[in-house]
Amino acid sequence: MAELKPGRSLVVAIGLAGLAWAVAALFVTVQVTTITGALATGSVYATAIVTRGFNTVGGVVLVLAAAAVMLAALDYFKGQSAARGVLLWSLFSVVLALSAWVGGSAPLVSWLPDIPPDIQHAIGTPYVTVVETAVQNIPALIATGFIIAYFWLALVLWVRDITTRG
Fold first, then answer.
1. If we measure between CA atoms, which residue out of 154, 153, 146 comes closest to residue 62?
2. Is 88 exposed, middle or buried, given 0-12, 13-18 or 19+ CB atoms closer than 10 A?
3. Half-sphere exposure of residue 17, counting CA atoms within 13 Å on the CB side?
4. Partners of 18 in the beta sheet?
5. Mapped to the 3 state alphabet, what secondary structure does 36-77 carry?
6. The whole model's pTM is what?
7. pLDDT one digit per residue (tens) for the chain, 166 residues
């Protein structure tokens, strides 16, 4: 077994915390869409559609970023990868995590069979109102913070490796 160096347990703890928060973010409401309109029969139709993290691109991408961090952390903990490899994986994870915030609200499901056809065909006209309200996903924000903290720790470990080698 490889000799444990300082920082290895911290790397795994940060990676595990980021992954746990990213998975928790999958189950949090991220958007509420309210649809109101008139049906062909003349009655009023109103519904609210709740979108959770697992229904969006951002939720899935954030879990992938946190999983990449955790994988790199475990490799570093076991002594199978150098600090340089951890730094590259953590940089990749930061880019993934930030992209989850940029395009993260894109839904994975766009067809909702519960909405009557006459309402679906009238979306975009004055006869149907669609209001989308974003909800802040706090677990996703915390997971992103852990992924960025992991990057800074990996940077410190990499600099320490360079300075101790020579």
1. 146
2. middle
3. 15
4. none
5. EEECCCCCEEEEEEEEEHHHEHHHHHHHHHHHHHHHHHHHHH
6. 0.77
7. 444 455 677 878 888 899 999 999 999 999 898 999 988 888 999 999 888 988 888 888 889 888 888 888 887 777 766 777 777 888 888 888 888 887 777 777 766 778 888 888 888 888 899 998 988 889 999 999 998 988 888 888 788 877 887 5
Q: Which two tokens stand for residue 120?
A: 């679906």
Amino acid identity at 103: G
SS3 133: strand
Into how many domains does the chain fold?
Answer: 1
Q: What residues contact 81, with CB distance under 8 A and at least 6 apart?
A: 72, 75
Domain assignment of residue 28, given as a range = 8-165
